[in-house]
Amino acid sequence: LQKEKWMNVRVGDIIKLENNQFVAADLLVLSTSEPHGLCYIETAELDGETNTKVRQSVSVTSELGDSNNLASFNGEVVCEPPNNKLDRFSGTLFWREKKYPLTNQNMLLRGCVLRNTEACYGLVIFAGPDTKLMQNSGRTKFKRTSIDRLMNTLVLWIFGFLVCMGVILAVGNAVWEREVGSLFQSYLPWDPPVDSCLFSAFLSFWSYVIILNTVVPISLYVSVEVIRLGHSYFINWDQQMFCSQCNTAAEARTTTLNEELGQVEYIFSDKTGTLTQNIMSFNKCSINGQTYGEVTDPLGPQPKKLDFATFNPLADPDFCFYDDTLLEAVKVGDSCTHEFFRLLSLCHTVMSEEKSEGELLYKAQSPDEGALVTAARNFGFVFRSRTPGTVTTTELGRPVTYTLLAILDFNNIRKRMSVIVRNPEGRIRLYCKGADMVLFERLRPCNQELMSITSDHLNEYAADGLRTLVLAYRDLTEEEWEAWSESRHGADRATSCREDRLAAAYEEIEQDMMLLGATAIEDKLQEGVPETLTILSLANIKIWVLTGDKQGETRARDRMTALSQTRGDTTERWGFTDNGLKEEVEAEGTGGGGGKQLHCPPPSSFSSLMDNISGEFALVVNGHSLAHALERDMEMEFVSTACACKAVICCRVTPLQKAQVVELIKKHKKAVTLAIGDGANDVSMIKSAHIGVGISGQEGIQAVLASDYSFSQFRFLQRLLLVHGRWSYLRMCRFLCYFFYKNFAFTMVHFWFGFFCGFSAQTVYDQFFITLYNIVYTSLPVLAMGIFDQVWEIESFKDVSDQKSLEYPKLYEPGQLNLLFNKREFFICIAQGIYTSLVLFFVPYAILSEATQSTGVPLADYQTFAVTTATALVIVVNVQIALDTGFWTVINHVFVWISLGSYFTITLALHSHTLFQIFPKQFRFIGTVQSTLLQPVVWLTIALATAICIVPVLAFRLLKLNLTPQLSDTVRKRTQISLSCALQHVMSEGRLGARNWSRRSGYAFAHQEGFGELITSGKNMRVSSLALGSFASKHSSSWIDTLRRKK
């Protein structure tokens, strides 16, 4: 053995892995330090699941324990080509003139971590880019916002406009030189290189391109990045997005996408670890027609937690259950109850580790399986240990060892799992657990009555958002077992269609079973998930859940997270087969528990189906179906169906499929997408979406490292989008509109002046004003507005607009519709800028041409006109930004006054006597500004120009506010009215108290009895988000209904 870097690993190498090491390539397990060639891995980097999974070497190679024996290994592996299917592997090992089938259970995939195994030896099957992890990885893309792309287009248009203006003025120069300029040749000849009016026009064109270049907003990009940096710091500093439990703050990992947060239309979310805590608990069960579990009102008195310690010393102290009737049934020896928990203790793939006597640690491949085994443990049926051929339990204090004859493992098609065991008395029994619809079809006819009762219980559990399984068993004779065992071994040894043959063998034995009952497990959500999903849905954001979990548990989670809180409260699932689209749409009502079957019409009536289901259904698709839906001939139909539904849930999808779904929506809907996840299996999706958000959870930091934004709780997403995203979009749009306006107002004055100066490329303003206009005189106020502006004018120092953004989610829609900055808004800003330039040029031109000083000297000189126009321009653009600013801070005030003060200070200094003495050639117009600004007619001209520029804007905005108010205007008015009413109420209360100070309070006599005890008991305190979600589903006056009314 020798140490090598990952980059040097090649196919055919044998690698030794040690505990807690990452797997460097896709390996075939040859041998391990554990008995029977077992090893334990964690696959969080692949599927997001943090639970431990088991892999096993081929039996013939498990004895190759040391490096010497492995060095002599000369087997040959023939397998499938590289692919991205994480849950499948098909191959054959040829060794010692025999062949052995290989499955996914014999493989360690790159990205896994070896756990609780001292050493493991593996043969490299795929390395580098051929590994399944790399096959699922997406490419890193440079992300740009839609505003960036629009800005680039507009800048090109502006540059074309600049060229057009240059051509117009150049043509004017040629005409003027030929018609008028030729008359001045005797005493004002052309410069030596110029010999014709055409050449003069050519030079004039380039001169005007240089003079008018300020219309092209070069400084815009720098200002945009400064504003984005400020927005990113606001996200980082937001205390309401700080998780005290994790000590983790929100982080903006990029500064280029902030305004796009205000335009999101589709959210693609992982489930495990993102929406849920990945913590399962045994909640309810149905045994032989009797239901057990927590049935109390979440707002009522809480029952006492059962104490299992006195009954069972091996019980898990963290297990919670409240229904003592189930424990009594176990104690009195009810046979069905015993068989129920015996099944849970045997039918699983959980591994047990006993660190000390009675201290058990279960390692389950899925959290729900661990919850079921833990439940059986607490009720007296304790799973202790297993070997490849035995399962040891403790049943009500008595150790029992069962012979494990076969495991019929779970897959997404079978939707069930079975084990066949022989008890110490020699009786052979098959135990099975799985989905209700699958197991009900395989029961004996005598179970009809029990099946009907259990089905009703399952509907109740599903309505509560619980994950359900049905349990059944079958007794086998020795002859039946022998015959079936031979059939299964034949299917297992098959080299072609092995999976289909095994499935047929499993189907043969899993028949004529007896029903035991059903289980219901609660997958705990993260805090605030239902509320967040509801609010985002009311903001017209469509939410797609892309998860690697099973379909049944994901549908239950859909109900709990309020994803299907549509008016019809229905769920729709499309099935796709290898032959094409399976024409079936299953819709299951979440409100009453009853379901209905809808069959797809022929393609000719597909549009009518879309009209019927629009907004009323949630689409549920599994990974196998999704593979066909993503094919080129089906993708448009899939997109049309999915986008017509309120929510979409994709189950059992691979990381690559997650990215493909995101790319599909980006391709066909042209909408802004956001992907959020917490594991390495979400990296491709995060990279593909316009915006990637990483949850810093229990599955590593790969998602965070690949993301654009990160935080620790899903509930922070509503604040990121509805507050920070909306503000960033609003501020950026106002900034861009104002920036284009002020640049055109400034530059177009040169254009008009060209018609009055013989098209000689003479500037209106002096060179220092041109240099400092965008740098000093107008830069700070627009930056302040772009960084600090909000929507509402707040009457007090307390900022409540972020609360209003969450209270009224519909305020988010202007960003989705791109209403605040688009090509139409751009042309409006340009038109306003051109109008302002016309006023700033022609009003001073008309007035000053006839005006005189108090001494009678005419004011119609170039410097007076330039100073008047420049002063009016600075005042107008600062007044305009004052009108555009919706939220004033001290910084806004300071920046506006600094801009005005700096203009007058610098302008007076540049025309002072001191600078003239130091630089007489550069500052020749001494005293011009002082003389101009002392003239009353100049200030009257500036005031008139300012009024003509600003009054139409005010009138237009006032008419728009009264005739076509936006939602933000309505909310602002409602807020002001409520504040005014509250103030009047407080004042009237104060006057009443001052007038009737001797009157006794009527509170104690008017108040209802019993609230004191209610408060001290804590029953009226704030309930958890889960209880709140349950309460909301039962009461029409819930917070969800309130939000919908506001919508």
TrEMBL record:
Needed cofactors: Mg(2+)
Known catalytic reactions: ATP + H2O + phospholipidSide 1 = ADP + phosphate + phospholipidSide 2
Listed SUPFAM superfamilies: Calcium ATPase, transduction domain A, Calcium ATPase, transmembrane domain M, HAD-like, Metal cation-transporting ATPase, ATP-binding domain N
Domain named P-type ATPase C-terminal: residues: 704-965
Keyword Signal: no
Record localization: Endomembrane system; Membrane
Domain of life: Eukaryota
Active-site residue list: D270 (4-aspartylphosphate intermediate)
Topology term for the membrane: Multi-pass membrane protein
Single GO MF descriptor: magnesium ion binding
Assigned keywords, A-Z: ATP-binding, Lipid transport, Magnesium, Membrane, Metal-binding, Nucleotide-binding, Translocase, Transmembrane, Transmembrane helix, Transport
Transmembrane feature ranges: 154-176, 196-222, 735-756, 768-788, 826-847, 862-883, 895-916, 936-959
Residues bound to Mg(2+): D270, T272, D678, D682
GO BP term, pick one: Golgi organization
Any Pfam family hit: Cation_ATPase
Main localisation: membrane
Coiled-coil features, chain-numbered ranges: none
Binding residues for ATP: D270, K271, T272, E369, F410, K433, R467, T547, G548, D549, R652, K658, N681, D682
EC number per UniProt: 7.6.2.1
UniProt xrefs under NCBIfam families: ATPase-Plipid, ATPase_P-type
Family, per entry: Belongs to the cation transport ATPase (P-type) (TC 3.A.3) family. Type IV subfamily.
Name of the featured protein: Phospholipid-transporting ATPase
